[in-house]
Amino acid sequence: MTDTVTLSLADLTARVETIFRRAGMNAAQTRALTSVIVAGERDACKSHGIYRIEGALRTVKAGKVNPLAEPVLDAGEGTAIVRVDAKGGFANPAFELGLPVLAARARELGLAALVINDCTHFSALWPEVEAVTAQGLSAMVMCPSYATVAPTGGNKPLLGTNPFAFGWPRADAPPYVFDFATSVAARGEIELHRRAGKPLPEGWAIDADGNPTTDPEAALEGAMLPFGGHKGAAIGTMIELLAAIMIGDLTSPEVLDYLGTTTLAPFHGELILAFDPARFAAGRPGNPLARAEVLFEAIVGQGARLPSQRRFAARKISESQGVTLTAAEIAGLDRLTAQ
Ligand code: NDP
Ligand code: PYC
Questions:
Q1: Which ranges of 7-148 does DSSP label H, i.e. alpha helix?
Q2: pLDDT over 60 (residue 289)
Q3: For this structure, is 77 an active site residue?
Q4: Which residues line ligand 1 (CB under 6 A)?
Q5: Which of 27, 44, 99, 22 is nearest to 333 (CA)?
Q6: What are the tens digits of pLDDT across the range 201-231?
Q7: What pTM value is reported for the model?
Q8: 120 in ligand 2 pocket by Cβ < 6 Å?
Q9: How confident is the model at residue 339, as a pLDDT?
Q10: Fewer CB within 10 A of the end CB, N or C, for the chain?
Q11: The pLDDT value given to residue 188
């Protein structure tokens, strides 16, 4: 028996769509969710690929996300703030609804924000960032999560793993994109280590008594640590302020109170900021996109790599050769399809 199977992206998409449709999700939720999960596998981001299907289904079954939600847009005519009420569904279809208005508004005003409220968000942020850079705009995206990260100097979960992503458009290359958890690693990585029976690298987490641990189980019961010590804790706190409190949505501790568990996908809001570099640079010397290329060349010129280059390389291979899944992953897809 072979222990891996290679699927084309179209075949993987069909398989994931079938699972979500059978779970009772409507077409809009199914399509948007499938797209980000398949993109995670395609770009070799395992912590936000097919592994996330089970959590999404658990969240549907627990009644904590609306599988039939139809998001509603408030275009905020004449203002820089576009809003989408996700109506208790996943964030991804809400983002798709708001994106064209966000992009038009950012071009008109120079900058604009898309606020998504009442959504479940379990995915990576780079699909959203790339959708904005594809419009020729720069983007910042952030959302809280649930309380799993201790602030530096503290010893109990309080902040979320709060992802933060940024994108800059490039004329003749894939965009400059970074996207990271503000914890040392995403929680998905800890769960994947637990599944694989592997210890965590040192410095990722503390146990329930506040002692450093490399045991994934103890880390899941204890707390994760912010990246970069107090700096990551401050950025995580900023995300609680801007993408939860400021937009009138749940903070990470409130999300955990609401769900009562971290085994379901978190329910909160999301903030997407879009900037038009040409508008900001108007009247100043130099073309901002051309000047950015000088910076990127200097970075790469030192032998460093730009963030997302690993993903883009993986994407190129997956698009021509498909994605290779283990027999256990295929069995998992079969099981979820049969549920
Ligand atoms: P990583 O630490 O794996 O990567 C962070 C970023 O750094 C990526 O853009 C990566 O690019 C880049 N990078 C990594 N190594 C280098 C290098 N040597 N030189 C330059 N750039 C580099 O990410 P995390 O584990 O922190 O997060 C993983 C995902 O989890 C993110 O997509 C995030 O959105 C998601 N997440 C989602 C949450 C949610 O609530 N929805 C919560 C927390 C995380 P590359 O990919 O090319 O390696
Ligand atoms: O990987 O930290 C994580 C995460 C939390 C919610 C979605 N992803």
A1: 9-22, 27-42, 51-61, 91-109, 126-133
A2: yes
A3: no
A4: 47-48, 121-126, 143, 145, 161, 163, 165, 178-181, 185-186, 189, 266, 305, 307-311
A5: 22
A6: 999 999 999 999 999 999 999 999 999 999 9
A7: 0.96
A8: no
A9: 83
A10: N
A11: 87
**Of all atoms in ligand 2, which is nearest to the CA of residue 148?**
2
Q: How far is the CA of 256 from the centre of ligand 2 (A)?
A: 13
Give the tokens for residue 43.
């770009």
CA-CA distance, 236 to 225, in Å (whole number)?
A: 11
C-alpha 101 – ligand 1 centre gap (Å): 27
Sequential DSSP letters for 163-198: -EEEEE--SSSPPEEEEE-SBSS-HHHHHHHHHHT-
Cα 52–Cα 103–Cα 130 angle in degrees, nearest 5: 35
| 37-74: pLDDT as tens digits | 999 999 999 989 999 999 999 999 999 999 999 999 99
* Residue reference for tokens 């108007």: 282
281's tokens: 């640079």
48, 121, 193, 268: the catalytic one is: 48
In this model, does residue 191 exceed pLDDT 80? yes
Give the ipTM: 0.98
Rounded to the nearest angstrom, the distance between the alpha carbon of 174 and the centre of ligand 1 is: 17
83-93 burial, b for 16+ CB within 10 Å, e for fewer?
Answer: bbbbbbbbbbb
Q: Collect all residues with Cβ–Cβ distance below 8 Å to 206 and sequence separation of at least 6.
A: 150, 155, 212, 213, 219, 222, 223, 225
Which residues sit opposite 48 in a β-bridge? none
CA distances from 110 to 64, 104, 235, 280, 318 (A): 37, 10, 25, 7, 36
